[in-house]
Structures are given as C-alpha cells and as structure tokens.
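User: quick one, fold this
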Amino acid sequence: MERRCDKRVTVGMPVWLRLPRGQVVTGTARDVGRGGMLVRSDARLPLSARPTVLIWLPDGERESPVLLPATVVRETKDALGLMFGELDKRAVRLLGHLVWHNDGSREETDEAGGAIVAAPAEAAPRSRAAAAARTERVPVFAGRRD
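Assistant:
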C-alpha cells in the first residue's frame, strides 16, 4: 500500500549513509522527494535504522552538501526505502527545487509506462575531475567508509 504524500522524481545521484556508530555506506538515490528517497545499495540495514544521508544537491550555480536525517522504512534485495525526519529550511528548499525542476513536464516513460526523469544537469558532475572532487568532499562524515 502506497502511503507517500510527497511527489518523487527519478534520479541517479550518489549518496552516502552514515550510521549511528559512524560507519558510512554508499548508494545511489533512485527517486527523491521531500519526504524520503529510495536508495539502491548493497548495504543491508534493519528496518527502523536511522542513517544520516549525505547528498549533493543543486544550489544555484553550484552543488551543496545536504545532510538529511532518515529512517529505513523498507528494504528489498538491492534497495532501501528511507523516510526523512525533520528537515531544516535549506534542505526543504533544495529538495523542493530538485522535485520542482523535474516535475515531469519533460518526462519520458519506460516500457511499463513509469516516468523517467533525469536529475538536473547541475546535479551531475560535469567531468571526471568534478566527480573526483565530489568524492573527495565526502569526509563531511566522521567515521569509516564500508
């Protein structure tokens, strides 16, 4: 049963999940909305786990790191369903901007008729150097990477 209240858009953005004991695991956000996201990852986290999500979101002409408190509400063999906790105004604004600019008005559909909406150009690294720079910025999190 679908209980989602907020619109989500399909993206392919790297994310990092910091667990309460400091471990950091990586994944890719498959869809994102103001209320949560679906993260494709090999990591297995128990339901009710409370990771903090680090995602780089478009913020004007640049990308900015955003930390999002979350709770695992669903797990499949290759993905985690996360519901966000209380977000600060900046996080709400940047997530809203991402959803608004991917609202489906230019959407394509897949074979099953589902919407495929790419992340805005600002969200993707423009070069290998930009991708490397993004990866180097990950130590916003203290702890080790698994």
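User: anything notable?
Assistant: Helices lie at 89-100, 128-136.
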